[in-house]
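Apologies for my clumsy wording, but can you show me some protein sequence, whichever is easiest, together with the matching structure tokens, please?
=====
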Amino acid sequence: MKCRRCRQRAVIDLKSHNTAFCADCFFVFVERQVRRAIKEHQMCSRRDRILVCVSGGKDSLALWDLLLRLGYRAEGLYIDLGIEDYSRRSREKVEAFVQGRGLELRVVSLEEEGFPIPELARRNRRAECSVCGTVKRHYFNRVAAEGGYDVVATGHNLDDEAGRLLGNLLHWQWEYLSKQSPVLPGVGEALVKKVEPLCRLTERETAAYALLRGIDYQLEECPMSRGATSLKYKEVLNLLEDWMPGTKAAFYQGFLKNSEIFRRETDQAPLESPSSFRCSQCGQPSLAEICNFCRLTNPT
């Protein structure tokens, strides 16, 4: 198998694109996909300070590496979830990545904050993934706003977004469908813009990128995610992708082209006065008097 671009020996075949690449040409392909996503959705500029939320996994570390190689001002945020050995190993991967490159990393330890995810989930009698998502979103925005960052970037890839879309469509979650986008705009100084530059790349492609770049990442899946419904949706899409290569991209990109339909139906409009929508306890953006994060961590 030869590289379609330079005719050297290929190391990866991409059936969804009907092509194959050697390592160097694959890097060019991946960078082009990220540049295209950033430009197409106006995610960020090279003047912006970007906070990359890293977990120690392949996607977030690959994203940080890519943004730096493309000339963006990117720093990292790691949230230690307090999930025993899993969090310890994940943190080691992030710190090794940083030390090898002399990068800036911010760390939030939920153990030190007083509410590691397993304990917080038990205390509230809620699923760990739901609790984890609420807590991480809070700190993503809080750290970015307090640190003066312009953009928060996460490593969500095409598989993540297509799986999420499938779940929302199967249950006709109109509110979620109206908000699903690789860019969530910022609101004043309260809510920092959030972007997903890997939205055009599959999980397999980001894994191959990390491997070929020599990025050492956490291979173990989060133990809290076992049996998660989102993983089932991904499995279904993988079956369709094997049968019809390109299905994931067509599904998700088609949705983005027609997403205005869902926004019209739910009459979504941006907040006009962000200072009026603040949690009375933590001061972070919230449409309720007390935000979901504070309800979890400070139950009355």
Notes: Strands lie at 12-14, 19-21, 49-54, 73-80, 105-109, 151-153, 183-184, 193-195. The two ends are 63 Å apart (CA to CA). Confidence is low (pLDDT under 50) at residues 269-273. The first strand starts at residue 12 and ends at 14.
